[in-house]
Amino acid sequence: MARLPMPAGVPAPLRSYGLLAHAPGVLAAFMDLYGRLWRDGIVPQSTKEVARLRNARLTGCGYCRNVRFAGARDDGLTEDDVALIDDGYAGSPLSERRKAVIALTDVVLGRRDLDAALAATLHAEWNPAELVELTATAALCHGFSKIAVALGAAPADMPVTIVPSPTPPAAA
Amino acid sequence: MTGLLCDAGVRTLADALALRPDLLAGYRALEAAVAAEPELDGRLRARCRARVATLCGGTAAAPAGTGDSDDVVLEFVEQLVFDAHGMTDDLVARLGARLSPRAIVALAQAVVVWEGEHRLARTLGVTTEL
Question: Taken in order B91, A154, B120, A168, is the CA torsion positive or negative?
Fold first, then answer.
């Protein structure tokens, strides 16, 4: 249950963001950054989706956990893959690259330390610019999830739903 | 300092994000939008930002408070940083007596962005200077 009233008179590109549209300037800037991260990224959407969904599971956001970005789905991330992004991921059939994304997300969320072995694995898989993008993905998704939870804007659960991958509001 | 980029000659978050210039521009635009938010005054914004920095293990100079009226705001900041699931209707209602819905949402967005910058900087092994 939302803890604030829904805003009125919201500009069309921001209407679907619910409570967040109370502060349209900040929301537009956030969605511009988030949209560029997804639309213009140098890391494949399926890779970033692993980080997003790992955060969603750890943060416990019912919306983020059940939404799937279409670009990641088109890029080859299946529901079978998604089901493996849980606490037993290390021993799962997920690729080593996807396991490394999960471990990086856990570092960003403070669930594990960045040890030398993990750092070496990450550097073997991605260059510095890609690591910046992946780390920013985890940090931004974490923030989005926390707001949804804290303001009561996320349902406790919902069906798995495929939505378009984010784009900057002006291009939506 | 340890982190993913600490051996790459990268010192600040700005240096790191410069590897992805559109992301650096986006973060700076987001910071500017928070600073321009009309219902979140600069003194309170600075005080909340300093609290986030402290909660994330950093340090920051905080402007003087104005007594009890800031307490509920800082309580909200701490709850959001430490345990979003522990947020209560009561706390948001008490905050609503101090801030408008617009200011509450802007503050929440600002807090998670600042916290995210700390998480990003810590993971990459750089300072939060943006």
Answer: negative
CB contact under 8 A, B87 and A150: yes
pLDDT tens-place string over residues B24-41: 999 999 999 999 999 999
Fold assignment, B13-124: AhpD-like (1.20.1290)
Beta-bridged to residue B127, according to DSSP, are: B12
DSSP 3-state of A3:
coil
- A79-107 pLDDT tens trace: 999 999 999 999 999 999 999 999 999 99
Give the residue extent of every domain in chain A: 45-164
What is the least distance, in Å, from the CA of A35 to any CA of chain B?
Answer: 10
Cβ neighbours of B18 (radius 10 Å): 15
CATH tag, A45-164: 1.20.1290.10
**Residue A69: strand pairing partners:** A163
Among chain B residues, CA nearest to A20: B105
Asked if A32 has any chain B CB less than 8 Å from its own CB, the reply is yes
pTM of the model as a whole: 0.94
Work out the pLDDT band at B130, boundaries 50, 70, 90.
very high
